[in-house]
Amino acid sequence: xxxxxxxxxxxxxxxxxxxxxxxxxxxxxxxxxxxxxxxxxxxxxxxxxxxxxxxxxxxxxxxxxxxxxxxxxxxxxxxxxxxxxxxxxxxxxxxxxxxxxxxxxxxxxxxxxxxxxxxxxxxxxxxxxxxxxxxxxxxxxxxxxxxxxxxxxxxxxxxxxxxxxxxxxxxx
Length: 172
What we know:
By secondary structure, the chain is α+β, with helices and mostly antiparallel strands. 51% of the residues lie in helices and 16% in strands. β5 and β6 (143-147) form a beta hairpin.
């Protein structure tokens, strides 16, 4: 039989997995606890986390679990190292097409590359280097993809205008 979690542990788990801040009312609903009990448990949890790498923020009654400001340098180093992980040749090829020809559909990518691009598109979306740009104005309304701000950051660009002309890219 599973051990019952304390209210603090339940809140910590919910805030850890939440993609956006959660209001007190939602936390109370999910834990099946009274709002006043949830508030007390949040105060206790904040106190427990005081010497750790996480904190709970409260903005207009919505709560979120975030990294502590003291961990900023460490987290920044991790994120920069993660962003510099090398991209495969296929990923770079796909990114180049999206950057120079985008927004493009997956079918257009497949036609240019000569191979299916499903995996590359999914991986680049997960890494945040490309983004959905909205449906194309053609039958079936396929999704179009464009590069993201993370793409610009990853390659040290402030805009796509800084990309080398396509002729230079072909010569390289």
